Amino acid sequence: MATTFELGRQEVDEDEGMMQFVGFGIGKESFGVNILSVQEIIRSTDVTPVPNSPSFIEGVINLRGDIIPVIDLRKRLKLFDPDKSQQSNWILIPGIGNRIVGFIVDNVSEVLKLTEDSIAPPPGIVIAGRENQYIQGVCEIGDQLLIILDFESVLFNEEYYALKDMDYEEINLIEEVSVG
Amino acid sequence: MANINTALLNDFIDESREHLDEMESLLLQLGADLSNLDILNDIFRTMHNVKGTSQLTGLDRISRLSHRLEDLLDLLRRGEKETTLDIVDMMISGRDRIVVLVDELEESQQELSTVDELINLLNILLEGDAADTLETEPAISSSAPLQEKISTDPTFTGSSVTNPVLATSTEYDEKNDEELFNIFSDHLKEQFSLLCIASLQFKQDSVNDEHLLECSDAVQRIKSSVNYMGYDEVLDFLDDWSEKLDDAQESLFRGEGVPAELIDENIDYMISTFPQLEEVRQAYIEDLEDSTEQNNDISTAVMDIFNQEETVEEGSEINLALLDNFINESSENLDEMSALLLQLDDGIGNIDLLNRIFRIIHNIQGAAQLTGLAQLSLLTQRIEDLLDLLRSGQVLLDKSIVELLYAGFYQITLMINELQESQQEVSPAEELVAELVFLIDRTSSMAQEATDTEETLKQTLSSTPSQMDLDDENDHELFSIFIEHLQEQYTELTTCYAGLMGVSDEEEKLVDCLDIINRLYSSANYMGYIELAHFYEEWSDALAKATLNIVQGEEPSLDFMNAYLETLTRAFPQLKNTRATPAISKQTQQTEQTETIIEKANTVNSAISILPHKNQDDSSSKALADGLRIRLSNSLDSSLQTVSSSEYDTLNEVFDVLVSSESEKAPMTAKEEDPAVIKQQKQESNTADETAARPRETSKKKLRKSVRIDADKIDTLMNQVGELVVDRSYFFQLFNEMRDIQQHFKDTVGVDQKEVKLIRSFSYRLGEAIAALGRTSNELQEGVMKMRMLPVSHLFNRYPRLVHDLTSNIDKEVNLILRGEETELDRMIVEEISDPLIHIIRNAIDHGIENIEERTANDKSEKGQLILEAYQESNHIVIQVTDDGRGLNPDKIKQKAVSKGLYSDEEIERLSDREVLNLILMPGFSTADKITATSGRGVGMDVVKRNIETLNGTLDIDSRLGKGTQIRLKIPLTLAIIHALMIRVGKDIMTIPLTNVDETLRISDEDTSMVEGVEVIYLRGVALPVFRLSKLFKVTSDNDSDKSFVVIVNTDGQRIGFMVDELLGQEEVVIKPLEDYVQEKSGFSGATIVGDGRISLIIDVYELVKMTSDLQIRRNREQAGIMKLANSTLSSSSGEMSDRLH
Q1: Touching check for B1092 and chain A: CB below 8 Å?
Q2: Same domain, B822 and B743
């Protein structure tokens, strides 16, 4: 699975040292992912919730006959935005190996061309915890900071495995707590 | 091993699996009906197929084993041996070995298991039989004293190389002209001495190709002289021997070992037959001892090598002090060598690389010698020799040689590893050494001989003997025999030669020619025609060279053949008549071949007709005929290569007929039958092309036309069809909406009647179209589903063997009856329920069916009955296993349940009989100590039950004490599509598999009552817990009326109600998997897409019930504040629950 991404990263426009990113936003934050890692972007459809599934799983959608889970990136990245009145509009679908997952985001901006040099590694303190390893780097565009994400790590880091092993009772309890 | 044709391998594996399966069931049938010839014939056919394909694929072991088995079957078929259970068992184990080999081939493309011990067993069986037959046969004239000898002959019992028809030479002495016999015995001695040398060489543990060739030459020569003398028994024996030698040669060529006793044993026989030979052998043994002592050459340069090896071995102890050093050093060397070999593979012909490899090998060789590693140094020495030849360009480096180098490299690595482990040279290197020596010898001799071939040829031709000189000198009668023989051989030779020009596989042909010339040589030798013998010798030399040339891949000039043939014709004008044959042009080749076939068949005929006069011994005449047949079919084999192989099969059958008629005791009838046979042959040959083009009619029986398709492709197609089904329901929904709109226009909008009519007619046509789409998609779905279907016989056919094995060692007899084998079942399901069924059957036999004693005591038939039955019941397949054994004892089960603390006394009494029986499916019940011998079922039955449930199937047990047990599996036809009940909870549509649904109810709020926090309804006097799905799934219910629907589900023998908002109806749904991290512990087993594209989750009833009861326990625990150990199993928790309910 890693190879998909590595290949993507390597396929840099050699002449100019440029990389292309899909920009998207959640709340006020701007994010980018390598364009080569994105399979498709769809308008959000009906999401069927799956009871008792991990909390960051919003539910499942019907993608041309395949049932794929969608993850609310806002919840996953723990961006608690009070202004969540606007329902999530877009679902980004990266091609992660043969697992297909959708990520719900607020909006999708244009394709960004960035030089490799302009991307700085994430500040050490941010990725100190293992959880945040999905941040590949940061890039300044104008007065805004673009956070470059690695979708694969977003889903498949240790946290996911920990969740997987968690007893459903605990999940229930968590949900009960959060609901109550 | 290297000869395996990988391109054919996969086909072979698939095909032979089918044959082997068929064979298994046939063998088991045979076990039940020992005298059934039809079954035997079928087994023979399948075995023959396996043999044929394995030979084609180059699988030595399988083909050897199947060949022996086929021999055995042939004996049985012809009634020469009685079919016994032991023999059937033997064949079953033979078949099993082939299965093992096929498995190995599939995994590693290699035959790993050995077959030799089985082959030996078979040999003993076969030959013991030959003796038996002989002894029981009525004595015919002179063979009577002979038989006495046989039965008293101690040497032949139990030996693998046997010839029962051995006679002492004294008998021959009397029968034959003394003078002739003297010549014969001189000749015999001469040839025998050659054999002795070879045998001694064998004893020194090294066999190479040349030795074997020498031996087989010598044997051939003895054979022809014996043939001359009319010693049929000896001839028979020699035939056998030379065949064995050929086999040995072949296996040697493949790099396998050859048993050293091969020659020895035979020599012993020869001596016992002709005592004169003993002195010859003694002389040679002494001779050899001398020479070994002096470390001299014995006779050939090859011998040198073996002596050397011996001295090295004797004179060297492994020097342990040096060993460590050696291992380290050579490991380094080998690493380098491996890299170099890889490069060599790429850049063939790089001298520099060769030099470096040479250096490394030289290093290793030196070190090995120093350390005293005889085997290793010998091997490296040979490799060095080969490399030297390569360097000097005498041998061209090609793939095969690189392979050989690799083999050498691996051998060295292996040996060094062994040294490291055990300080000993364990693996023998002889095979490889022999191969290397063979190659080197061949090359060096080639280099010399190639130059002077032509010269020799010229010389020989000029010194052609004239027949005139010969004629007068000899006895007239003998001469006519000689001429007859000559003519015979000549015909064969010309055929061979003719075949040579057209056929690509020249080597084989040349070998055939060589054989014939050798035969001619010995007969000439016999007659004392020294010049002629000399001429033959030259000829055979020339041929041998040509053969070598071909082996080397060069284009040989075969003109000399013609020259020789002409000379021969000149010397013997009698041959002119037969001479017509060699003038074959390629166009007429086909017809010529036919003629020669006829001629050969004639030969067989005449041989048969001569035999009774010479010797009345019937069995030996048969043996001779057999020998002829082998020869005949050999040459046929090669001469008809252009002809289809199917025709060859028919020819084989013809010969079968021939031989079987020969084996009848009146050879004359055989002769009478022959012309018809020949006619048939002729027709066959003429229509060869047509035959090839026509599909083989004989194999039509049972052959289904089939295409092998990757299972994944079918699964993909299945998914697509599933999509189509979903789309169809989408259309149907749109159609309904359309009608709503139509109604709306009519009622509310008030559109004009005319306009509405337009819409109505449109919606009507839309409805038609959708119905048509529905029909087609249904058929398509069915069709694809059928593609995945296999008849249950695929599954059932595995079990006769199981039953056979299970009952073979105990005093139970079980009659397995299979019913409804043609019922079809999804491929996946067949795989999934195979193991559970094994479990059930094993239980039935182990615990259900009583032993014979008990059965007779209970007035039952001795044989227990086990019925395996399959039938379809709407969308399900039912598989029933019924036995007439002792049945389950409910009292004992209850007792056990109470003693295990699963139930209290009162509880257990309340359980119905059915529920009691179902207790054996509980996990705790099976793993702990078994109940008793009488009702000890339930070993792993919980696993069985679980397996069946994952397939959305159900398991029922019915049992009557003393009468038997029936286990009934009900499984959906396919895994991908299920019948389901659609329900609504809040906004969500959910799906419950119909297999789990017992019934649906509509209840009002008053019907429920609360018992310890659980809602309970009373249904027909039984309390059922009811859970609201909206609560379980935390969705808001929109049901505000006081009436609600309850779906009663059944899992694991537990009935629970789920309260839902609405029942939407039954539907066929396509199961789509959920990602495992979504699905896990969620209570859903998958999802499906409903008509409008929405997703409906499919409830995993088993999991959900388990979750709810766990949840319940936790709540109770919290409420009561008691820290009770949570019992996670459903069984116990539900037990507790029902406890509380009451």
Answers
A1: no
A2: no
